[in-house]
Structures are given as C-alpha cells and as structure tokens.
MFS transporter
Amino acid sequence: MKLLKIDLRKRNYIAVSAVSFFYLFAWSAAMSFFVIWLGQVMGIGSTQTGILYSANSFMALVMQPLLGFVSDKIGLKKNLLLGILLILLPIGPFFIYVYGPLLKSAFWLGAIVGGLYLGFVFNAGYGAIDSFMDKISRKYGFEYGRCRMFGSFGWAAATFLAGRIINIDPNITFWLASFASLLAMIALATTKINLSTEEKEKADSVKLKDTFGLVKNKKFIFLLIFMIGVGSIYDVYDQQFGTYFVRQFSSAAAGNKWFGDLGSIQTFFEAIFLAVAPVICKKLGAKRTLLLAGTIMSIRIVGSSFQWGPLWIGAMKFIHSFEKPLFLVAQFKYISLNFDLRLSSSIYLGCLFTSSAMSIILSPLFGKFYASIGFSKTYVIIGILACVFTLLSSKLLTGDKRALNYGNKFAEGEQVTA
C-alpha cells in the first residue's frame, strides 16, 4: 500500500508539473512580448496598450469569481481545466488571423474580442489552474511551490525562444503557444486522482451563499486590500516594462533580444527559488513572507526609475525572481491557515478578481502617465503606492496561529488504488 501511495504521488507530481510547464510556456509564448508586438508590429501606443490590458482584465473580472466557485464545487475533478486548455488550443490562429487584423481595422472590436478570449484563458484560467495545483499538492503530499517551479521553467524557455524568434517572425511564437497547450492537455489527462466519499461530500456542500459570504469576512477583506496595493500594482508596473527596457538600447532588435534573455534568466531563477520559498515561508510565517515580498517589490520598482543603463534596470527586474516565489507560496499558505479550505479556490480567485478590477482602473491611468510624464516618474509613484499598502497590511493581515505542514505526507485517511 505504501509503495502504491508513493507511485501515485510521484505520478501526479510529475503530471501537474508538466501541466504548469506547458501552460505557462503557452502564456509566455503568446504574451511575454505582447507589449512589444503591439508597439513594433501593430503600431499601437502606450495609451491604447493600457486599454487592451484593461479589456483583458475586465473579462477576468467577470469570470474569476465564477471559476472560483466552480473549482470549489467540483473539487479535484479535471473537467474545468480540460475545458480551459481546449479553449486555449487555437491561441496561435487567434492572434494571427483574428486579433491582429481586428486591432488594425477595428481597434475597439479587437479589444473586446481579445479581452473575452485572452482574459478567460490567461487572466482567469490561470487562477483555476494554480488553485487546482494547490489542492492536488495538499492531497498528495508535495509542496505547491515545487511543482509550480516547472511553470517558471516553461515561461523562461518560451521567453528565451520568443526573444529570438520575434525578430524573425512573431507568428512562430503564437504557433508554439498552441502546441504547448496541446501538450498541457495530454499531461493533465495522465493525472490519477482518487476522491474519497468525504472529499466529494465537502465539494458538494459548497453553496453560492458560502462564496458570497466571504465579503463579510474581515480577514478576506484585509487580504484583498493587500492584493489591491501589491498584486495589482505590480501588474501595472510589469505590463509596459518591455517598452521601457528596450528603449535603453540603440536598436529595437538588440533590445528585444536582451529583453528575452532577461525574462528567461529571471524566470529560471524564479523556478529555482520556488523550491526554496516554502522553507522561508515556514520560518517566517505566511504573513511575514507576504510583507517581505511587498517590501522587496516596492524597493525594486522605485529602483527601476533610475535610468542608469540596461544592466541596472535589468537587475531591478531580475529581483522579481526572488520576490514572486515568496508571494505565490505565502499566498496559498495564508489562505490555508486562515480560511475554510472548501472555499480555497473562491478565495484565491477572489484575490485575482480584485487585482483585475484594479487593473481595469490603473492600466489606462498609468498608460497615460507613461506617455505624459515618462516611465521613471511613474515608477516612483507605483513604488511608493506599493510601500504604503505593504505598511498598511502589516497591521491588517493575520499572523500565523499554527504551523502548516502538508508537503511531506498524505492526508490522513487517504485511500489509494492503482
């Protein structure tokens, strides 16, 4: 029986790690050079780019609460994730034959269509996939961070390739995204999840009133405040960073290549640090780890405002490889420590919902700032805002009341058959 448990644990660990790798490979291949593709290939400026990011966020805003409830309602059944990956499959033809032409001929229609599609498969779908990984890691006794790290490897690999391919033909990267989504579907199909009667009953017991009831939970509201001031603020910073970085070079082609290399190196180290982050989170606690991530983010965003050459600016972006793993791991730990685990997907996607809502407001606003006062001054504003919310959250977030260890054994009573 013990051997069967070990085999099934390894099987699911490998399978969900592969899903994470190929899904984030697809996302990176399609979107890591999105802002550069818009500017250099489509001829779209900063303000319109902000509008497109807002459109993507608006669709996520609509879908994230629904996906959170559905994820909790079906538990560890794979139907939802297979549906997301199936819809992601035609991402390549969508960019080449639908989205690109629409942005040139009918920008607002293109923004709506792109927002519907990209907002669902990435901005909203990502939350459902990440939440599934967290649930399966808790059930089968491995750390979420140590399977999510393969997603960062996938992102790094795609960014490295895209940085070279975009100067040849950006359409190739879109086809790679479609191929990666197919491989992600195959990987998901290889998972084997045995649900106990108790697990099925817990999932069935989730009601809409439970999800809506979260808005009355102070801990949840305080977590959302942190997400508003840290999670969504970072998204706004990152959206048009590629344009800022490429401008530091004498030619766009050279900047594109180095931006691709920077992204791949950053996410490679991000993947490595995802294996270490659970140890740090265990030592510091979930709350302190979240605050540490917010502090690092605030400092490096302000640091990015100093135009001391591409090496310095790249170094500021590179620090994200240490900050993001802390943020990701601590967020799931914090949810596990402070909330009803039946609603873990609703809580996580509720946090993403809040970030999307703020992104709708902030993306076009800061897009105008980038165009009017420049990137440097805008980054100072963003960094200060993140710092203020981090300090506020030090008073609002709940400190750990108990230890959380679910990365080294199966849940009690787990029955496994091969």
In short: The chain has one domain: 2-396. The longest helix spans residues 107-140. The chain has 18 helices and no strands.
